[in-house]
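DM between two lab members

TW: hey, do you still have the Alpha-L-glutamate ligase entry open?
JB: yeah, one sec
JB: this one, 306 aa:
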Amino acid sequence: MKKVYVIHENSEWTIPLFQRFEEIGVPYEEWHLSSGNINLSEEPPDGIFYNRMSASSHTRGHRFAPEYTGAVLAWLESWGRKVFNNSRALQLELSKVTQYSALKAFNIPVPRTAAAVGKEDILAASKAFQGAFITKHNRAGKGLGVQLFQQQEALSSYLNSPQFEDSVDGITLIQDYIQSAEPYIIRCEFIGGKFLYAVKVDTSEGFELCPADACQIGDTFCPVGEDPSPKFQIIKDFNHPLLPKYEQFLQANGITFAGIEMIEDRDGNAYTYDVNTNTNYNPDAEDAAGTFGMLEIARFLAKELN
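TW: and the structure you got?
JB:
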């Protein structure tokens, strides 16, 4: 029997998807690729394959899951299997440098960024930045490695302190700090390569913005004032000039499902700074809006399977 095979390394993130599969009667099987083996000469099983590998797998003890996933996807694609979020999508998931290069090909503005390996070169690269800048990991997720600096001296102190944490791939990014008028970013969700909805994400408490992680926190609301607002809010009737470019970008790069994050500066200029191909959804925001990302993914894959 043909199935949907879900490739991943974090069982907590797949629970909502599997519940939707069961709800609408989609046969599926999970492939947890924190370990495993494949015989390249053996034909893969019949069905379709959904890659949900995450750039932050190493934070869960699955250091080589992305590399192994790359091998599995190459095997599947060599046998002509249909893979959603394919090998090219995995490349973008694992490298913000690759993301930015691909986004620029579609005239999608990204923050000015430098990449460096080693503390001396991180500091040297930062000297090209005037004013505030941030550092972040090239392979990351959930805001890993994001630090804000007002001057090079502060960066130097950080690099030589126990608090410095190198990116798992050794590449640190130095990037212009985009000062927004208000503390939020916009995350645009795409299913089947098409825009589904946009969610406004409060960043006043920092940049660890994974919706699935946030919904695990007991108090999911910002504890400010007597009328707290939720951290994640779906924006009704959202429209933006970048949406058609995002869809073209996704199609050209083998990405079927994604969340793309943008921020606007004080002058209203939008900069795209992250493409997450292992997208998750916030249940409170979806309940309030009456739209459900995992259900739409399950429906899309059901149609593709049949």
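TW: got it. Residues 3-93 form a domain with the Rossmann fold fold (CATH 3.40.50.20). The two ends are 11 Å apart (CA to CA).
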